[in-house]
Design a protein that fits this description.
With 683 residues, this protein is of the alpha/beta class. It has 2 domains: 240 residues, no CATH class; 361 residues, Alpha/Beta hydrolase fold, catalytic domain (Rossmann fold, 3-Layer(aba) Sandwich), CATH 3.40.50. The chain is built from 17 helices and 22 strands. The strands form 5 sheets. Strands 9, 10, 11, 12, 13, 14, 15, 16, 17, 18, 20 and 22 form a 12-stranded mixed β-sheet that branches. The longest helix is centred in the middle third of the chain and has 24 residues. The protein is globular and about 85 Å long.
Length: 683
């Protein structure tokens, strides 16, 4: 995530934005229910914060036109309000047919602790019969592995700032004890939930700081104990909760132990992926051999072993209302994106000298957070050594030119629904990646007269490229969004995802880069962490349509329509300061079938170990000697060692192992024992 929030911080001061505050906790005053008539404002199950518990089928209505039979119906009152009273427009969220599978199940018990609850280091405890927190599949009764965070970001930041610690470097002008009353209790799935599936959340025996169980709300007590209530919302939901309590009892969860329970339905695969799959199929159907392009020689910043650098500009089919940042998907009458002419997008390409002796493989390179295509220049040592012709495009939607016009106003302007412009433009970015690989691979195999082959012959020392060898390499953001590409591509079979993770909802609070952005975001809401967690959950529902939460599950198995299965190699830098390892582990479990290559640096729950050579997808973890990060949702503030985030490619034997994986699908541990500093390239 290098550069992500430093860009935001430096530019945010140039933007006039609305400062905000927290929402109230008023209770609903009328009928409502799961999947029924339009619910009213706040759910009395959590009267201390309107919007919780979340996600929550209370805020859904029946809709026979969707894959789930539901549609979200979030009212304006659940949208966090700024100090100036600005709330987000819920319409963008209410297009969804369920809730994001990439968020934590959140509620609020003032004074709650996580004593006795599952942590990231004890995920297996969440599956035990005695676990105080439970998430179950309402249809099968299967328990969903998770851990529990008490949202500590603001509280711990306040403690550190007041103690004059070096990090974080901002001021929180709020009383610490007041901030402690605004901590969400968050059940974080350790593996992505299924699509279009109803889950039940149950919490029992959560304790306060004196070791006493926190009290259920009056509304939940009335439902649990079948006591009368003068709240018509509670009365209207009795039948629904009776069914819910029976389901929980069938799973061994006693009704009288519950402090709260509720249910939610995840969005469908169609909700998250149909627009992008349609764009891909429509564009490749119209341009099966690629699109027109021009080539310019740009031999700057070349390392030894690199023959040339090319700038390739493609005339890409455009599916946005405009080609520049800030546009939205250009929707037709059927609600699907349709082409809106074309727009020029460019790629940077490096060609190794070895390609004049043996045809090079094509490697599509994914750049880092809010970066640019020129970051492919950092891939030159591996490209030269392994004969890879590597090319990169900007991740349109999440590249450097999206920061000021789109990203900052969406986050700090008070209406986070404007964030939809980010994932919608990412659709165009994905198409550009897919179409560039299609174009270059077909042109490489198209004979000596193609513009690409003429440039390779004339400007790159007679280099050639084998268009049948097509691979992917991405790090940081390129590893994150590369998971989406690997689920979508019809041309690439195998890819490497370095220091990736999912979802962004998990990654942000645990990233050191978030510190530079936090003052702009949190101060909008008077540092009310409940408001920020609600906003991050809302944003994630929009983001799922582009980031790997919507896609990684379909890389290897049950692929998207018209898409082959793929294999990936995941690299993890232990104690990463920028992308928490927890996100990489969630991604690996969600993809499924991924093994942890022995010799391992540690056991990882839910990821089996494989010895020797392995045919298929795998994970390699590297220990650079950094101390373990905190287990709660804060960055690795106390680690003074070098950030291992950008060091995954320093493994001395990575190149040959990567090339073998690309060409054969077989991968092995590239290290002499567990991967550590002894296995790195010596400068």
């Amino acid at each position: 995530m290098n550069g992500f929030l430093s860009c935001l911080a430096s530019l945010a001061f140039a933007v006039l934005f609305v400062v905000g505050c927290g929402t109230d906790g008023s209770s609903a005053t009328g009928p409502g229910g799961s999947g029924g008539t339009l619910p009213l404002e706040c759910d009395p199950l959590t009267p201390s914060y309107c919007g919780f518990p979340y996600p929550n089928d209370y805020w859904t209505v029946a809709d026979a036109t969707t894959a789930t039979g539901l549609r979200l119906a979030l009212p304006e009152a659940t949208m966090p309000a700024t100090l100036a009273g600005v709330r987000s427009n819920p319409d963008a969220f209410n297009e969804m047919d369920g809730f994001s599978p990439g968020i934590a199940a959140m509620t609020h018990f003032p004074g709650a602790t996580v004593s006795g609850l599952a942590t990231p280091d004890s995920i297996e405890d969440s599956l035990s019969a005695e676990s105080p927190t439970v998430i179950i599949n309402a249809d099968t009764g299967a328990r969903l592995a998770h851990w529990v965070d008490l949202d500590e970001y603001v509280v711990q930041a306040k403690i550190r700032v007041d103690a004059n610690e070096d990090q974080p470097d901002f001021i929180i002008d709020r009383d610490l004890e007041a901030l402690r009353q605004e901590q969400a209790l968050m059940l974080r799935p350790a593996i992505r939930p299924e699509d279009a599936t109803r889950y039940i959340v149950a919490i029992r025996n959560v304790l306060d700081d004196e070791g006493m169980p926190v009290a259920p709300s009056a509304g939940f007590l009335a439902l649990r104990d079948d006591e009368p209530s003068d709240d018509p919302v509670i009365e209207s939901r009795r039948a629904h909760f009776e069914e819910l309590f029976v389901t929980l009892a069938d799973s061994g969860i006693a009704r009288d132990e519950l402090q709260i329970a509720w249910d939610f339905t995840t969005a469908s695969r169609e909700n998250n992926t149909s627009a992008m799959v349609h764009i891909r199929d429509d564009a490749l159907g119209s341009f099966p051999d690629g699109v027109p392009y021009t080539i310019e020689l740009k031999n700057e910043q070349l390392d030894s072993g690199i023959a040339c650098r090319l700038e390739i500009t493609f005339d890409m089919p455009l599916y946005m209302t405009k080609g520049e940042s800030g546009g939205l998907l250009n929707l037709g009458d059927d609600g699907l994106p349709e082409q809106n002419g074309s727009f020029p997008y460019s790629a940077a390409m490096i060609v190794p000298e070895a390609a004049s002796v043996m045809p090079a493989a094509l490697v599509e390179f994914g750049h880092g957070q809010l970066g640019a295509k020129e970051q492919v220049l950092g891939f030159q040592p591996i490209a030269a050594a392994e004969n890879f012709a590597a090319f990169a495009l900007d991740w349109k939607g999440f590249s450097s030119d999206d920061v000021l016009p789109t990203l900052i106003p969406a986050i700090v302007g008070g209406d986070v629904s404007a964030f939809r412009a980010i994932p919608e433009r990412m659709h165009q970015g994905f198409l550009n990646f897919l179409m560039a690989m299609r174009t270059l691979s077909r042109e490489a195999d198209g004979g000596p007269s193609t513009a690409l082959n003429q440039a390779l012959n004339n400007d790159c020392g007679g280099a050639t490229i084998d268009g049948a060898k097509r691979y992917y390499f991405g790090g940081s953001q390129g590893g994150i969004l590369g998971a989406s590409i690997m689920a979508l591509t019809t041309d690439i079979e195998r890819g490497l995802l370095a220091v990736p993770g999912q979802s962004y909802n998990l990654l942000l609070n645990r990233s050191v880069n978030f510190d530079e952005f936090a003052p702009q975001f949190y101060s909008n809401y008077n540092w009310n962490a409940l408001d920020v967690q609600m906003n991050l959950a809302l944003i994630q529902g929009l983001w799922d349509r582009a980031e790997p939460t919507g896609y990684s599950k379909y890389i290897r198995t049950n692929p998207l329509p018209g898409t082959p299965a793929h294999e990936v190699l995941i690299q993890v830098s232990k104690a990463d300061h920028q992308v928490t390892n927890l996100g990489a582990h969630i991604m690996a479990r969600t993809i499924g079938g991924i093994v942890n290559l022995a010799d391992t640096i540690r056991d990882v729950w839910g990821i089996p170990v494989a010895n020797g050579e392995h045919l298929g997808s795998a994970m390699i973890e590297i220990d650079f000697g950094n101390p373990d990060p905190p287990i709660t949702n804060i960055p690795h503030w106390d680690d003074t060692m070098r950030d291992p985030h950008g060091r995954a490619t320093e493994l001395e034997a990575l190149g040959p192992v990567l090339k073998n994986f690309y060409e054969t699908g077989v991968v092995s541990n590239p290290c002499n024992g567990p991967c550590d500093e002894d296995d790195l390239i010596v400068p």
